[in-house]
Amino acid sequence: MQNKNSSLRDEIIRISGTNPRKCMLCGKCSATCPAFDGMDYAPHQFVNMIENGNIEPLLNSKSIYQCLSCFACLERCPRTVEPAKLIEAVRLSVIRKQGANHLKPDNIPALLDEDLPQQAIVSAMRKYNK
Amino acid sequence: MQINGEFKPLIVAFCCNWCSYAGADLAGNNRLAYPENVKIIKVPCSCRVNPMFILRAFQRGADGVIICGCHPGDCHYTSGNYYTRRRMSLLFSMLNFLGIEKERTRVEWVSAAEGAKFAATMNEFTEAVAALGENKRLEDLRCKR
Amino acid sequence: MKVTYFPGCTLRTKAKDLDKYARKCAEILDVTLEEPDDWQCCGGVFTTSRDEIATKLSSVRALKAASDKNQPLVTVCSTCHNVIKQTNYAMQNDEEFSSRVNNYLSKEENYDGSAKVLHYLELLRDTVGFDKVKEKVVKPLEGKKIAAYYGCLLLRPGKVMQMDDPENPTIMEDLIRALGAEAVVTPYRNECCGSYISLENPESCTKRSTKITKNVETYGADMILTACPMCKYNLEKYGSGVPVVYLTELLAEAFGVKEDENAK
Amino acid sequence: MQRIGVFVCWCGSNIAGTVDVKAVAEALKNEPGVVFSTDYQYMCSQAGQDIIKNAIKEHNLSGIVVCSCSPRMHEQTFRKTAQAAGLNPYMVEISNIREQCSWVHKDMEKGTEKAIILGKAAIAKVNLNAPLTPGESPVTKRALVIGGGIAGIQTALDIADAGFPVDIVETKPTIGGKMAQLDKTFPTLDCAACILTPKMVDAGQSDKIRIFSYSEVSQVKGFVGNFDVTIKKKARYVKEDLCTGCGLCTEKCPQKKVPNEFNLGMDNRRAIYIPFAQAVPKVATIDADYCTMLKSGKCGVCSKVCTAGAIDYTQKDEYIEEKYGAIVVATGYNPISMDKFDEYAYNQSKDVITSLEFERLTNAAGPTAGKLLRPSDNKHPHTIVFVQCVGSRCANCAEKGKEYCSKICCMYTAKHAMLTRDKYPDTDVYVFYIDVRTPGKSFDEFYRRAVEEYGVHYIKGMVGKIAPEGDVLKVQASDLINNKQIHIDADLVVLAAAIEPDKSARPLATMLTASMDTNDFFTEAHPKLRPVESPTAGVFLSGACQGPKDIPETVAQAGAAASKVIGLLAKDKLMGNPCVAHSNELMCNGCSSCERVCPYGAITYSDKEFRMPDRTVAIRRVASVNEAVCQGCGACTVACPSGAMDLKGFANNQIVAEVDAICK
């Protein structure tokens, strides 16, 4: 589909290293996703919407911060579409923009508790910020 | 080959009996024209084409050689066209090294239903060879009339 | 037997036990853990995008350190293991990626993908052998019913981690049995606990962790075994109260080298 | 030197309109070897053929060239004409000046010129032609069917019906295969046993059919019409001729804890057993892995209770050699292992079962006597979830499933769901599907009935995780129509496992030199036009060994394979294609290149004695071609580095002569 988003679409597919056309619409990604309840767009919608260039809604979705790369969809996808990689690519294309960091360092102290492993902060910073 | 001062490339086409020769017949049935200088030799399978035949054709003054076989997976002998593909990709790159341009040689899959493809392939191939001019590299001068 | 050992950030702070007992037990098993002088944090998560280069350099440097010594690179933390193994896989299999990484690094630092990454569990199973582990047990954990919890990152992606069957693993269960305890197989052992979502969305984390621990309870397990500080934190804080122990802690207990908590 | 006649056909105006046929005949008159040249309006007509016959006799021709339409049209006609006049039919060459000249060119001058060149090429070839005689080989009038499922049984019955003897080789102690394990069959819901067992009895009682049960094919030699096959009859420790099938031994055997493979391990059998009541042959078999007598020498109960004296603990494997004219492969399929799909918890819960296990659970002769009780606690399940496409349509096929669609699952799942709702209206039945594929007669109507009349919940989506918890199975799945993740507490989950060819197929294919695809399904000689023949002559395919198939298709293919076998066995002699490869033993250097490229296994190497120029005798390893097996593709002629291998009818020098004639 040729539209204004086709270059963004191609870029997302390129950096994800996956091929959304292999998707056969089985929905196993959304069936397996542990973060599904917090998502406004489900993993299977990411695959389909990216393939169709309908990316705008995904850029503003909550889902990109809900996916924790647990790789369940990636492992269980029968077609090796690996939706987690597509979601990651969308997230990166958002947070790489100026001022688009999702987690502000100033907010972190409020989130801490005594036992929180520091890897939680490290991981979140890496996933939510450029 | 020069005809009335105009260069008409001589093309030798090896066609497998089961798909491509039938495809050529179909081109005839449908009256799909292609140049007269395309001459077809029937072989049972594209894998019957010995590299020697191709060298011989170039030696004797052919300007281009094309091998037509069944589509991959459709070979009457199961795997013959796969042999062809491997052998010819080696041979053609070697010929290219010797100065017989890659455009003068070709392997094409033509099924018995693809009369139109056969004619189109021959037209296009002849044009490509014509653009290169006469084959001089391997031509054996002793064979010149 | 000497190996390069990458502890990772959390093992220096909140998960000191995981680190301490890993070292102690390795000693008992005649494995020397050699820590590189200047390792850096792996970053906590592997970014799958092929154009993420800078975030993977610390892993590559650790891999390079191990490959220079011709040693396997051993980690205990599931997260470090996942990040480093995936980075290594990309260095071995994605030519474009590896050449871009090496362009970032100085010539002497260039890395060819030759290191082997092992999780502590793999070290126990493949290099030491569970038989030898069994021999060293002085206090068999008889009567304990332990549910192994793999979490998301230890086994996945299966193609990359190559550690065990990602859906039907046995490596932790085999270890539990080698230590004399009873292994309880539970279905959510390879589901995600919620990881760092606990920062932003504790409710989601509670839901997930409780689902896992409640399920473990129905199987009558006394405790949950994990290799990951994040899993331990989430399952303990947001779960339903089943105790969670590190695998090295359990190992130390069976080897009789665990310090008395009360003596501290 | 040949004496060649040239016959140029006008084909009315088809050729003569664009080619000056008289000029062609005139020009070809002066080619080397040509002693006669003429033209005629319709060469293929009786009058035209008479011209050819007369010329052959009158001019004592040794070869002819007909410049006419495509050889695909009339080569056979003119070969017969030549033969009628006493000329070897392979001394005829056709120059195609219609399809490949007059019909594709418009210019008379250029067309004529091309026709002359094509004629010259044909003449150059005929000059080098040699008379060829097709090889003859006798046909052994007996067929072998490998596999005794519905495919093998139907093929054997059809062949026997035509009066030819058939042997069935079956690895299990009884014939019947997968169909014997099924409960009802879609889309008509007749009971599988009711339609299968009469056929099994027919096969068992036919005087034309021999059944080698508990046996395997261990070696195949020879070629079409003349296969030499060794069959290994595994020791069953029971004399088949004495056993009456009374079953007393299977009741008295003290070893009761043997997993019953016929019920897929869901109950136990004895160490001496008859797989099921209608087994054919109805003969007991001792399972050596479990029999105490065979393992420790202590027991002998079966021997004591057997009034027929059929038990023989000393029985050994027996090898039988037999000759066959044709071989039919009917090795069938199996569901794939669910080990790699443990997100569905197949290995964690007894209540997650495969569809074949579900068949046994609903079968009146199954472990629950037909009552739908779940395996863990024998309770009636109230919520059942069916998962389709488990392992089918997987792109990551190397590690996990299969790339193809298993074809039968949509229909049997609809059947299971419908039958469950019919018998137990108090159950909720969910089917998770990716696509419902029902292309078959009355198939879609059947599936719609399951939905519309029986209220089966079909949900477009997939199951992602199953977690056994207490006595329920927590099913987490997607509902794509509603964009939801749904959670169902199920009592029983049924997995529609992908099917794969039987493991015995691959070694068998090697023995038969029959080709297979990457999934280990046998390849057919042509996917559309020769669907029941293997590319290896004399080997035929029946049933799911060629690809996933349901029962109607299997039976249709079984009949088709039988008709091909009958067509072969009805011949007394097989006439080969004389255009086959042959090796010049003096030139052969024994390198094996030809053997390796031959798709048919037609080339063998042997040591032969040769008299050398210095009068000594040397032993050299040389290739020889089995003319009955060779199909004449010519792959070997190109692989041969010494030029020893050549193809009759398309010899190296013949093709070179054509090239020369064209390029001159």
Entry keywords:
heterotetramer, A: 130 residues, mainly alpha, Fumarate Reductase Iron-sulfur Protein, Chain B, domain 2, 2 domains, 9 helices, 51% helix, 0% strand, C: 264 residues, alpha/beta, Glutathione S-transferase Yfyf (Class Pi), Chain A, domain 2, Rossmann fold, four-stranded parallel sheet, 8 strands, 45% helix, globular
Number of strands of chain D: 34
- Note poorly predicted spans of chain C: none
Specify the biggest β-sheet of chain C: 4 strands, parallel
Strand content of chain D: 15-25%
Number of helices in the DSSP assignment of chain C: 12
- How much helix is in the residues of chain C? 40-55%
Class of the largest domain in chain D in CATH?
Alpha Beta
Whole-number count of domains of chain D: 5
| Spatial ordering of strands, largest sheet of chain C | 2-1-3-4
Radius of gyration of chain D: 33 Å
Q: What's the overall geometry of chain C?
A: globular
CATH architecture call of the largest domain in chain D:
3-Layer(bba) Sandwich
What is the helical fraction of chain D, as a range of percent?
Answer: 25-40%
* CATH homology superfamily of the largest domain in chain D: FAD/NAD(P)-binding domain
Runs of chain D in which pLDDT lies below 50 for 5 or more consecutive residues are none
**Mean pLDDT of chain C, as a whole number?**
93
* CATH fold title of the largest domain in chain D: FAD/NAD(P)-binding domain
The number of distinct structural domains of chain C comes to 2
H-E string of chain C: EHEHEHHEHHEHHEHHEHEH
